[in-house]
Amino acid sequence: MNKTHFLFLILLFLLVSCFKNDKQAEPVSGKTNTISIIIDDQLWYGEVGDSIRNKFASPVLGLTQEEPLFTINQYPARLLEGFVTDSRSIIVVKKAAADKFEIIHNKALPHNTFRIYGKSIDDIICSIELNSTQIIKVIRDAEIQKIQEDNRKSLLSPAIIKNKFHVDLQVPTGYEYMLHKKNFIWLKNDIISGSTSLLIYQIPIHSFKKNSDIVSNIIKMRDSVGLYIKGREANAPMITGEAYAPYFSTTTLDGKKAYETKGTWELKNDFMAGPFINYAVLDETYNRILVVEGFCYSPSNQERDLMLNLEAIIKSINIDKR
Fold this sequence. Notes:
eight-stranded antiparallel β-sheet
């Protein structure tokens, strides 16, 4: 083979490789709750960086230990934006001739890129303040969607939950039924650092009286079913943590009004504790309050990502129409 033929084959191989890379972009498989910030060091170590950290690395509510909302990786702006491809969320911050905020959705990879440009430091900080809530929602929704897509690859049989509660809930394999009563189910998944659990139960809709203290009702409801959750010690039911008041908000789940409560649980007369997220859905179709709760026990490891996984499972719920 002469040099001309050899160089021709090398060129052909490179062309085919480039074509394959263009046609088959690898999906992003970055870590959960991790974002890449592309910003000059001068801005990152000043007021702009402080503003970013205050918004995107603030403590997560309802955990037993302090953990940031997102894990942040900072890259200097001299790196091209496309260089950082191992993250599902990229925030580009820089000075520019004109102020601009935009969100670019890339479904092929997939990831979201957020561009925050400002003519001055004050303009950039103002844009972060105005748009951080929207950015956080987009990132969290994308994380939950990714978890749900992964869960759908291998799901627990939905028959028991569907027959008992008239709902579809995408619970991944690994969970096992710990307790199965008339209006109550407890599923548990043992992991290296501890366990994650799901509770599904229902109570009559009139149990929440109008103009009453909803948070108190939810705590009372939680503590009543906590009798089913046994620890290693006798007489150690699960109760709502008493040290701090739970975080409460009104939301929707599967198009129905719901109360979201985040806080900590503990075993009475025992040392075990952890965070929980509880959704109480006002389901007038079946004249009930449908409750789906996730909680974890992970004393030697982080809880943030475990709780997001539980939230993703809960938000996959689909209540049957009559």
